[in-house]
Write a structure and sequence with these properties.
Shape: globular
Radius of gyration: 19 Å
CATH topology: Four Helix Bundle (Hemerythrin (Met), subunit A)
Order of helices and strands: HHHHHHH
Low-confidence stretches: 221-230
Helix content: over 70%
Number of strands: 0
Strand content: under 5%
CATH architecture: Up-down Bundle
Number of helices: 7
Structural class: mainly alpha
Largest sheet: none
């Protein structure tokens, strides 16, 4: 009972941090950076799509997808579908977010893939895509044999958590990189925007931590709702 209560509290914290992170990145990009556009003379409006789609998509939807299978009180088939769909949304938004960064660079005559953040980002998207496709084929459709599922599940879970940790780390690196560029262009180092960006990064890290804590704190049960029965 104590373990289940702890897991429930962790999941509530995840949701609160997710909402807070989404609001903070939207406030930053709308109120401080001028909003969004797919086509604009001000190319920074194109870039603003990148942090919003990555944080809300890859990080928040991705985190909710991870904990959904462990926290929702429904049958394994329903939870499996929700897990799959949330990860698909996360991946699609993440891909669009990465493309927005490339579009901004290309239209601003800025080189692509010159930073560690960009290198890791491409790796995260590729690994996330591989993880999703493998999960779809083995656990959803057409579905692997019982033996393949049983052998694959621990590695699927471990690989997914590692990719997610890498995504959180790279998102934090991205906030640092962008803030450094802005400060080098004259943004006040102790101004409101700088603090907002830093706190958004902190909330992102805390969100990732509580996603992992929620996942690891769930009690292991062997019934039709169990994670191991995927």
């Amino acid at each position: 009972m104590a373990i289940a209560l702890k897991a429930t509290i962790f999941s509530y914290v995840v949701h609160v941090l997710g909402v807070a992170g989404a609001i903070m990145v939207l406030v930053w990009c709308i109120s401080f950076r001028g909003g969004f556009a797919w086509e604009a003379s001000n190319k920074s409006l194109i870039f603003n799509l990148h942090p919003v789609l990555i944080l809300i998509g890859l990080i928040i939807f991705g985190g909710e997808a991870i904990i959904s299978y462990k926290t929702l009180p429904w049958t394994k088939d329903v939870k499996k579908l929700i897990h799959l769909v949330l990860h698909a949304i996360a991946l699609i938004l993440g891909i669009i977010g990465v493309y927005a960064a490339f579009k901004y660079h290309n239209e601003s005559n800025i080189a692509n893939l010159y930073s560690l953040h960009s290198w890791i980002g491409i790796g995260v998207i590729v690994l996330y895509g591989i993880q999703w496709v493998y999960g779809f084929v083995v656990f959803f459709y057409p579905g692997g044999t019982d033996a393949i599922r049983r052998e694959s599940l621990p590695w699927h879970v471990l690989f997914g958590i590692l990719v997610y940790i890498l995504a959180i780390s790279n998102a934090t690196l991205g906030f640092l990189e962008k803030l450094t560029f802005l400060e080098n262009s004259g943004l006040a180092k102790y101004g409101t925007e700088a603090f907002l960006v830093n706190f958004t990064a902190v909330v992102t890290v805390l969100f990732g931590i509580f996603v992992i804590l929620t996942t690891l704190s769930q009690p292991a049960t062997e019934d039709e709702y169990a994670y191991s029965e995927i």
